[in-house]
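ZP: hey, is the adenosine-5'-triphosphate complex queued? I don't see it on the tracker
AM: it wasn't, my bad. submitting now with these inputs:
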Amino acid sequence: MPAGSAPPAVHARGVTKTYGDVQAVRGIDLTVAQGETFGFLGPNGAGKTTTIAMLCTLAAPSAGRIEIAGHDTRGAPHEVRRAIGLVFQESTLDGELTAAENLRFHADLYALPTATLPARVDAMLGLVGLTERRDSLVRTFSGGMRRRLEIARGLLHQPRLLFLDEPTLGLDPQTRAHVWTYLSEIRAREETTIFLTTHYLEEAESCDRIAIIDGGRIVAEGTPAELKSVVGADRIELRTEDDTAAARALRERFGLEATAFQGGLRVRAEDGARAVPALCSGLGVLVHEVTVIRPTLDDVFFHHTGRGLRDDASPPGADPAGEH
Ligand SMILES: Nc1ncnc2c1ncn2[C@@H]1O[C@H](COP(=O)(O)OP(=O)(O)OP(=O)(O)O)[C@@H](O)[C@H]1O
């Protein structure tokens, strides 16, 4: 399809969800373009799972309208389901079946054409690096291998949009990196739109765009760089021979108000790395050490929600089975 003519992967307007007295989602608008990797962040209980459930047709909105790849979730739920793949936190693989059998079982559910199926199964197992284990029982797989097989299964019917709810939660750092490598390949080779929730900042950094949800409302949306630019300038931390004289010089010569911290001075400046040489040569005080700290997505998250991204999440445990 020519560029610009594809409907957005996700187009949601005024979506709410109420459970009795609980307003889980309070009127959200979301647009995700085809081919984007979109990160959905929020503290526990913010409404992420409820939103994904509505986007996937697993829950009906109390109000509002959702279109997935141009199909209305209420009016055309079957078309929506064909357009999406799901990888949720709880594994739904059958441990007593092999990797290939799990994929074929899924193919039956979607009534995929049998003629092309073997090639598709092999291609998806290859995409997630499980070709060698195609005939092994899934109960012998590590956590990382299972997650990769679930991703392969979610992609089997060539969905336009893949939903991943915490795809790397509980995996060790090496395995998380593997999963991201496969997701990048999927983006490149299958041109799949990816919509994911994550608690990991470095994963959120890898997204094209991010929305932060808190208390059922979208409180920020944009590229990681856009979101960070809203939080403010870089922080420069200086250790000098004479902090009192340095603070005075910062104020009088550079118009910067310094605050003291653990034996040093801290100032805020746009483009801190560029400001450092002028500061060092213009202070008139010997500078021992300089650190420039750029705003992080955690700063963004804190700015909008008053919490750190992981404050309310139990630390994810490492995958005991590993991935080697
Ligand atoms: N079936 C339900 N019945 C009643 N309340 C619900 C139901 N599902 C969710 N809620 C409430 O809606 C709010 C949003 O929950 P949701 O699970 O969507 O949040 P979340 O952002 O996915 O959180 P987490 O990161 O913990 O999974 C919470 O207050 C939750 O208790």
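AM: back. The chain has eleven helices and 14 strands.
ZP: great, adding it to the tracker
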